[in-house]
Amino acid sequence: MKNTIATMAAFAALTGFAVAGETPSPEGAAVYFINIEDGATVSSPFVVKFGLAGMGVAPAGADFDKTGHHHVLVNRAPYGEGPNDGEMSADGLYNDENHRHFGGGQTEAVFDLPAGTHTLQMVLGDQFHIPHDPPVMSEQITVTVE
Questions:
Q1: Structure pTM?
Q2: Which string of b and e fits 134-146 if b means at least 16 CB within 10 Å?
Q3: Number of folded domains in the chain?
Q4: Among 11, 14, 40, 60, which residue's beta carbon has the most beta carbons within 10 A?
């Protein structure tokens, strides 16, 4: 399995594409927002706490079974519906203003978003930032920043 993952990572680095779902997720694994819910009104900056059940948190690059690290998708289509979800960057999920990586194993983060309505969704990534199979992801929520 390690050779398969290393081969996939090398392929991704050379081609700019990665195949999602090479790392299995345990049945029942889930990510969720602990302190914020759909429809919440917040003041920026605000803290978002990440929840995880059925798996452990490990930093990117760490090769531990049944672990991953958090990514938060901001103001984009739900995971699986985005235009690049099947053709990710060489580093897995894109890393930009719409795809926030927490590869240090963080379990919370401060978000500073402008006033208005915003969407948030968590997706767990494996050691290579690639979603598990099946993907461990939250529902997309909407928050309003005052």
A1: 0.82
A2: ebbbbebbebebe
A3: 1
A4: 60
Question: What CATH number does residue 75 fall under?
Answer: 2.60.40.10
Helix (H) / strand (E) containing 124: strand 116-125
Please tell me the number of Cα atoms within 13 Å of 128 on its side-chain side. 26
> For residue 10, what are its two tokens?
């090398």
Which position has the higher pLDDT, 78 or 93? 78
- For 93, the token pair is 């999920």
8 A C-beta contact, residue 90 and residue 13: yes
pLDDT band at 91 (very low <50, low <70, confident <90, very high): low
Could you give the C-alpha distances from 146 to 33, 45, 75, 140, in angstroms and in order? Answer: 20, 10, 16, 20
Q: What is the pLDDT of residues 31-90, one digit of tens each?
A: 999 999 999 999 999 999 999 999 999 999 999 999 999 999 999 999 988 776 665 554
What are the respective helix, strand and coil percentages of the chain, to the nearest 5? Answer: 10, 35, 55
The range of the structural domain enclosing residue 62 comes to 2-145
CA atoms of 69 and 130, how far apart (whole Å):
10
